[in-house]
Write a structure and sequence with these properties.
253 residues, alpha/beta, Rossmann fold, 6-stranded mixed beta sheet, 4-stranded antiparallel beta sheet, 27% strand, globular, disordered C terminus, transmembrane transporter activity, nucleotide-binding, ABC_transporter-like_ATP-bd
C-alpha cells in the first residue's frame, strides 16, 4: 500500500531576480512499513525534500499525498491538525523541553490529542521499554546522555502511532555506539510496529539499516538501492559505491 506519494515536486527559493530551484519536478512513493533513507551531496535537495514532505515547508508546485490526503492544499489550521495526528518527527538536536522530565517529553503528543491518562501511561510504558529508557522517566534532559536524549525523542515520535516518521540526521550528534543503538532500535520498531520511517542522512552506515536508499542529485532522484536479501555489510558497500559516483555526501542546509 502506498503511504506517501509525491508528484512533480518543485521548490524554489528567492525572488524573480534571484531564483534558486532546489527541487525540480521530483516524484516519490513510499510504501507502508518501509524504512527508507535519502542521501545526496550538499545542495542536492535532500533536506528540502524532507521539509516539504513533512509539511515543515510548502512546495512551490506539485502534490504530496499521505494516506490519500493531499496535504499541499490544506490550510494552516487543517495542516496543523493533520501533522498532530499523522506525523512523527525525529531531529538531530533532539528538540526536547528542558523543563519537562523524560516521561513528560514523551507524552507530549498524547497530551495535545487529549488521550485518556490510563491509555497514555500504557503507551508510555510500552514505547519506553522498547527503547530501553523506562528507568530514565523521572530524569530531565540535562541529566541524560545524547544517545538517551535521542531515544527519548524517538519515543515521543512513535508514541501516538503516526502514519509516518520523518527523521532528519537523527544520528548526526551521536557517537558511533549511541548511533548504532538508536538505529537498531528504529529498525526493530519498523519491523515490530510496521512503522513507516523516512530518514535523511549523510552517513552510509546509518543508511545501511534501511530497506531502501534513495539518492538525490540536482533536485531529482538520481538512483535508488534496495537491500533485498543482502546483509547490512553488503548493502553498506553498495551504498558506498553509489555515493562515490555521486561525488561524496556532506552536510547540507
Amino acid at each position: 500500500m502506498i503511504l506517501l506519494e509525491a508528484a512533480k515536486l518543485h521548490k524554489t527559493y528567492g525572488n524573480k531576480f534571484n531564483k534558486q530551484e532546489v527541487l525540480k519536478g521530483l516524484d516519490l512513493k513510499i510504501f507502508k512499513g518501509e524504512f527508507v533513507s535519502t542521501m545526496g551531496a550538499s545542495g542536492s535537495g535532500k533536506t528540502t525534500l524532507l521539509n516539504v514532505l513533512s509539511s515543515i515547508d510548502r512546495v512551490s508546485n506539485g502534490s504530496i499525498k499521505i494516506e490519500g490526503k493531499d496535504i499541499t492544499g490544506m490550510k494552516e489550521k487543517q495542516l496543523a491538525e493533520f501533522r498532530k495526528q499523522h506525523l512523527g518527527f525525529l531531529f538531530q538536536d533532539y528538540n526536547l523541553l528542558d523543563t519537562l522530565t523524560v516521561k513528560e517529553n514523551i507524552l507530549l503528543p498524547l497530551s495535545v490529542s487529549k488521550t485518556p491518562r490510563k491509555e497514555a501511561n500504557q503507551r508510555f510504558e510500552q514505547i519506553a521499554s522498547e527503547l530501553g529508557i523506562l528507568e530514565l522517566k523521572d530524569k530531565y534532559p540535562n541529566e541524560i546522555s545524547g544517545g538517551q536524549k535521542q531515544r527519548t525523542s524517538a519515543a515521543r515520535a512513535f508514541i501516538h502511532d503516526p502514519s509516518i516518521i520523518f527523521a532528519d540526521e537523527p544520528t548526526g550528534a551521536l557517537d558511533s555506539k549511541s548511533a548504532s543503538d538508536l538505529l537498531n532500535k528504529l529498525s526493530d520498531l519498523n519491523q515490530k510496529r510496521q512503522a513507516t520511517i523516512l530518514m535523511v542522512t549523510h552517513d552510509p552506515v546509518a543508511a545501511s539499516y534501511c530497506g531502501r536508499v534513495i539518492f538525490i542529485k540536482d533536485g531529482l532522484i538520481y538512483t535508488e538501492l534496495n537491500k533485498g536479501d543482502q546483509s547490512r555489510q553488503e548493502f553498506f558497500k553498495d551504498i558506498m559505491k553509489t555515493q562515490s559516483v555521486l561525488g561524496g555526501v556532506h552536510h547540507e542546509r
